[in-house]
Structure formats: structure tokens, C-alpha cells
Design a protein that fits this description.
Strand content: 25-35%
Strand order of the largest sheet: 5-4-3-6-1-7-10-9
Number of helices: 5
Distance between the termini: 13 Å
Structural class: alpha/beta
Helix content: 10-25%
Oligomer: single chain
Order of helices and strands: EEHHEHEEHEHEEEE
């Protein structure tokens, strides 16, 4: 059984973006030390065009071979005219409004998202599934999330988009570890209690 990992950036007060969902203020914390960490531990979480620009597009995927993202996350790439932002992964976008995919490399999942996620998790293979935002999508899939990797940046929004955007019963996770960085960022990992 493959793992579904919610790999997410957030502020100290638990928001993944401002009230409009914009998390671009957190990019300021991706300094050389943090980027080296991403390159060595999670290179596939960087979009393909970013990997190319930073000179590490040739790195193999270490943890994930598939990505699921919500419509708002995907729209960030579409606004930059990038219809296949994670070309190094199998790409799925959960959207009831997008209609036809703008790229043959991106499959739109309009209905049956839970079934699709369970199907992907049941596949054979050593690499997992990267859940890349957003808030509502993570809330819908909370029961399928096996691991949390939370990149917390030393900033406070005060109000904004929470990590999980829908109501659900309490979900328990076990602390896996923490790594801190010189810029004040920390990365915490948690495994699902099953």
C-alpha cells in the first residue's frame, strides 16, 4: 500500500496562505540551506520549471511518483502558462469545474476522488503520492492521509486559509521527527495512527 503524504507549507499560526489562499510570502524562507534540504530529501516536490531553473531537473524522484492537487493550486501554474507543472510525476487535479485538461499529462478528477486516491494507494510501487494543497482537498482526504510533512515558516498571518478546510472527526498522528533551519523554519513529520 502506497502512502498519501500531505506535504505542506504553513505559518506558525497554521495557515497555508492569506485569506485569499496566497502563500507566496513564505517563499522568502526558501534560502540556500532550505533549498539544499528540498533537493536532497524532496526534489520531486519542486515544479519541473523550478527544478530546471535551479539546475536539478536530472534528480530522480526519492519519495513520490504521483501528485494530487486542487484546482486553486493548479491555477497558479496555469496563470504562468504552465499546463504540466510536475512533468516528472503522474499528475492529477481534483476539480469539478475545470472540465477538459489543458495538458495530456494532467488527469482531471471531477468525481470519485476518494475512489481514485484509494486506487492510487493500492498500486504496487515503492514511491508514494504527494498531496499538494489545498485546504479543502486535504480536508476531504483526511481519512486517506498517511503522513504529514509540515514546513513551518517563522511568520504569522493572523487569519487565512487553514491546513484543513472542512470539518471532520479528530485524526491522530504520531510525531516522526523535526528538523530546524538557520532561518527559523522547521519541518515536522507525522505518521497516521491506524
Amino acid at each position: 500500500m502506497r502512502k498519501l503524504t500531505y506535504f505542506i507549507a504553513c505559518s506558525v499560526d497554521g495557515f497555508i496562505g492569506d485569506v485569499n489562499g496566497d502563500g507566496s510570502a513564505m517563499v522568502a524562507y526558501v534560502d540556500e540551506e532550505f533549498l539544499d534540504f528540498l533537493k536532497s530529501e524532496y526534489p520531486e516536490t519542486m515544479p519541473t520549471h523550478g527544478r530546471r531553473a535551479l539546475g536539478f531537473d536530472d534528480l530522480e524522484n526519492k519519495r513520490f511518483d504521483t501528485i494530487i492537487q486542487g484546482r486553486a493550486s493548479y491555477d497558479v501554474a496555469l496563470k504562468e502558462d504552465i499546463p504540466s507543472p510536475y512533468a516528472h510525476l503522474r499528475q492529477y487535479v481534483a476539480s469539478r469545474t475545470l472540465g477538459e485538461s489543458p495538458s495530456p499529462d494532467v488527469e482531471i478528477v471531477a468525481d470519485g476522488l476518494l475512489d481514485k486516491v484509494r486506487e492510487l494507494k493500492a498500486e504496487d510501487g515503492g514511491l508514494g503520492i504527494y498531496l499538494c494543497g489545498g485546504s479543502r482537498l486535504a480536508g476531504e482526504l483526511i481519512d486517506e492521509i498517511d503522513e504529514l510533512v509540515i514546513k513551518t515558516y517563522p511568520m504569522v498571518y493572523g487569519a487565512g486559509m487553514p491546513m484543513f478546510g472542512t470539518g471532520f472527526d479528530i485524526a491522530r498522528f504520531t510525531f516522526g521527527g523535526v528538523r530546524s533551519f538557520g532561518n527559523g523554519a522547521v519541518v515536522r513529520t507525522y505518521d497516521r495512527e491506524r
